[in-house]
Queue: 2 jobs
Job 1
Amino acid sequence: MGTIVLGYDASPGAERALDQAVELASAFGDRLVIGFGVHPPGLGGGEGTQHREALREQAVQLTGNALQRALAAGVDAEIALVDERPAEALTGLGEQHEARLIVVGSYGESPLRGAILGSTPHKLLHLSDRPVLVVPGG
Amino acid sequence: MSSEVGDKGLKKDAIGFLDGLVIGISSTAPAYSLAAVLAIVVVGVGVQAPAVMLVSFIPMFLIASSFFYMNRADPDCGTTFSWITRALGPGIGWVGGWAVVTTGILVIGSLAQVAAFYTFDLFGAEALRDSTLANVVFTLLIIAVMTTICVLGTELSAHIQRVMIFAQVGALLLFAVVALVKGGALTFSLSWISPFAVDSTNALILGVLTGVFIYWGWESAVNLNEETEDSNSAPGLAAIASTVILLGTYVVTTIAVVSYAGLDRVAGFEDDAGIFGALATDVLGSPLDKLVVLAIITSALSSTQTTILPASRTTLSMARQGAMPEAFGRVHPRFLTPHVSTITIGVVAAVWFGVLFPLSENFVYDSLTALSLMIAFYYALNGFSCAIYYRRELTKSVKNFLFIGVGPVVGGLILTGLFFKAIIEYSKTDQSYSGSALFGVAIPVVLGVGLLLLGVVLMLVWRFGGHRPFFGRGREIVDPDVASGLKLGVAAVPEQAV
């Protein structure tokens, strides 16, 4: 049994990525790891406990919904909150679980906008040693 | 690699001592701060201006120690708010947090406006530079861009700031060294750095009041807390190291300016932050003088950003502890930053500046004078909180006694003294830019004390509106294991408060 890692933040792209990941996991009989990076961004000062807790609570809520859907579809799934930025969190999870592939949704925006806003799929493609599947937000 | 829900493991390599140092220095905006206060200090104490820079450093250094130890026990992004709440109780903690947020809001517009003014100056656009409308429009644009950057949580900021801060301190020191080598109106003597050579104690105290402002903001290095490698000591060390670097830069540059230009010429810039722009051309010639102008622009820009951040993190922490509306505690699902807090801070700062600057530039300058009052207020509380929070640890070693007890308390007492002295001195209308008064009291005092009192009122409103989980919290004391370094502080909020 292999593992598929999914990056999930409840955006439209992530919803479609979830569907895709569930489908693949069923087909391969894989386990699904739903990952979320909960490290506060911004290096300008003032990121501390309360910020981290806020992110963690939100992550638990968001990924919890995804977990329910995966389990309902008959896929063995778990949640992993990682204290890293999103792209690093997902590559780390990929390594840890020796994942078959990493699935993420894209926001479907232009490359320039993605570069300015910080695009996790874009970073992931550069960072990951494993196959990455990017699912457009439509 | 930490990956489980509830794991408190921290990411260790997020940001190092150097970055903490850089952020500590850039938040104080040395080029901007010095440009704003140098002439005022010189008018007050003459050639002993460098001595005032030195003396102002003492209370700040003592308070740095309290930030260091409180951060070790409670590395929370609410810093001052969170610490005062623990040590002195929720009511006064709330007002402390209010003071941090309000000082940020008051100064954001002024910082951005300096960037706007000098950008026009850099490109020789004198008509725009002298137009109030152009200044306001450009300033609001800068606030909008900086707020957006804070919401996006761009990862570039530490790298950009590292470059900017070295350019800034480098340009100031280049200017200082060339000015010293060239020589000028006066010859340096050791008495310039002796506070005992100042003629009147009153002049010295007033100088220190102004001087304290130039070290304000460096605690941002402590606000980084968990972001930093070895998070329970690196930020504190970075805060202390950045203070030492600031001290050196301020003293050397002040000596250079006073000796090169002489007292009369410096005094001419009392109401004008343009002092470096004007002197740089004489000292460095074109085009090197542009370096100094660039230093001031980067100084003002980076400190606009590093002022928005701690203010928004304070409201985030307050909201999550039940001390502010819940919305301020929200984080954006994609950018992971407290977007509601950040945008609110940006908008309020923009409105404050956008409305008041066109009405009266002097009123805006007066609001900066009011800042010294509010800064002294929350720094003093921080110092006292430290000694009280650690009270059972103070007698355990000489080091504890001096650095956790005596230092912060003396720092707190000095700042309390300055706070009341400032109220007395600034009440005289001749100390005010606008020269006007409300109820017979000059604008800076009305603003400074008024905003603190408003904080008390809002706190009471919040308190009587319920929110017992927060206001029902009792005073706490440091965990002895955390104090002795056996255990890391993890900043757990008491159960009943969540």
Job 2
Amino acid sequence: MDSALIPKGVKRCSIGQFALWIAVVGAVLLWGVWAMLLCYFKGLNQTNMNNAYGFALWIWADLAVIALGGGAFFTGLLRYIFGKDELKHIINYAVLIGFICYSSALLILAIDVGQPLRAWFIFWHANVHSMLTEVAFCLTLYFGVLTIEYVPLVFENRQIDRVPFFHNLTHNMHGIMALFAATGAFLSFFHQGSLGGVSGVLYGRPFGFRTGLLIWPWTFFLYTWSAAAAGPCFTLFITRITEMATGKKLVKDNVVELLAKIAGWMLSTYIVAKIIDTVYWAAVTAPAMGLTLMDFYSNNPGSVYGLWILIAEVVVCGVLPAVMLVAPRIRSNPGLRFIAVTLAAIGVCLNRWVMVLQMQAAPVLPFEGWFTYMPSWQEIATTILPVAYGVILISLSYRYLPIFPQEPELNPIEGGK
Amino acid sequence: MDQQNGNHKKYGMVIDLDKCTGCGACMVACMAENNVPFREDDTDKLLSVSWMRIYRLGNRKPFPQVEECYLPRPCQQCEGHAGHSPCVSVCPATATDYDMHTGIVSQISTRCFGCRYCMAACPYHVRQFNWWDPMWPDGMERMLNPNVSVRMRGVVEKCSFCFHRYQLATDKAYLEGRRELDEGEYQTACTQACPAGAILFGDLNNPAHAVHQIAQPDSAHGGRPRNPKAFRLLERLGTNPKVYYLSSKEWVRKAGDNQVQRTEQTPKA
Amino acid sequence: MFPFSFEWVWDMGRMVFMGGVWYALGILGMGMTYCVIKAVYDTAQGKGGEHGHGHH
């Protein structure tokens, strides 16, 4: 029924099946929308945040989703600036994933602030010394870059491409895409970094605080580095999931392995820097503030913040996937590669979790105890909302747009056309 | 309004913990003075708003060595290094600011959009969020203090050292042709309410004021108190707060800061 | 946000930060303006459509 909209040379499931799929995901989306409306009309008392947890699940989700969306800027940098041309076969998907991630982050931020109607104050009354101001500006601008990078994809839909204006516009945008990619990389460096700076500058919170270089705490650079490492891993993760869901091979092995290799080396160098930073912080920075490493890890029964979380973040989800992706024999094994990129994505999510949640859980005043937090269903629903939206947008884009240039070649349809 | 050139004040407090009985009059006076909202069930202290909060510290020793201490904690009005309070530098909308003339950290409720970054930054938990809109029992709106704006839900609030009283006092002095305020002309509600006289308020920079004489802040070393009985909370972090606590007990003085070695005897609230 | 905004001061922090913001906005804006104008021009010239370039 909608075959005129489907790209040439590929097969898609029936419109009925597709509609059913969208309806199921749409139901989850609506659940999230309901929770969002509750938060807007009743206020943030709908959450389980409190005065000890000003930042909670939503801020973690923001940080995690932006780190995972780092594949867009990094793949763009590799392709357009460093000339890794093979990546053109995966960059469309990286851009789409990035677009979803950043729009999700903006959506969650809009729900998270206490006065959403005043959100424009961050632009109008900007405090240029605050890391969050940096985040807001660069995020918004970078979302503009992602839109600019996604729009030509949309215009490449078979029917839209037939309109001469859109075809020419797409062609022209592709012509100067390197400029947009470079601007995107510049903006990403700063906003990924300043998200790290959000915790790193807090000299009232010894768990998060780091010394650094000039105005930038070390977490600034660590966050950009980990986003550049884990972002492509997440792109590969989603690509593999999509291949499993569609039952088709969508990207050739050489493209995947190139991105995996680069991600592996980024991850390896990042984890070395992370270990050095952690040791310095534990041995020098924190004791200068009166606390030792073990003061930040709780042995209380029922507490999630045992030392295991540090081991999980740095070793299991840091060193291990780095080694796996760097080793050619492991990297070329699809199953092990999938495990490695999954672990890397989890690792960056764990890192964002501890820098926001554990930072607030750990007591600072000597006579205070640990604070606990469990998200409310409204917070969980509004966090799943962007996932549902992402699935829907990927489904629509996969069905109607030529996201994977190698798909027709890898999945030839019998009988031509 | 403040016309002094380079004659900057630094309004601060000295709270004598030997005198504090934990009665809570300071908390009540503060809530009344500053239109602090409350709910029908305020048992969850992490959700309630209370600009002044009293902590109960214990030395965790068995009877008969067991001791207790009550510690009132207003906003510490941190100066940080050259006015960079932990909360001021992080606010993205400049809704909080460090006033170099008075040393007070302001909070602009109409500009705050509730991102709560300042709450994450503050190590003392003095900043509280309006998770709900204020609901005043019938008739109570007529008892609200007209000098303090009421905050709606979605914004952060904290102790302001009764800054509206400073404005009223300077207005009055100006009308009388003066620029300087006497020590008694600007006092916070909590100071005046304390029946034990445990709280003293004044200008830490003014040698004539009691707070200066008792705390003896050393401005060459980040405002550290020279008085051996005085201490500030979390001195090591470098927040440079303006609330000085006095205690004759060493365990209480030690309870104010992290000592690298947390032991079984570390005081617990 | 703008030099004529309330609270604007010409200090180094603001010049560097807002300068960077306006610079990035400028590049994006000028790039897109160029693309759109050239697309209009190309369409008027008769380029594009079915016989144009294939997919990238």
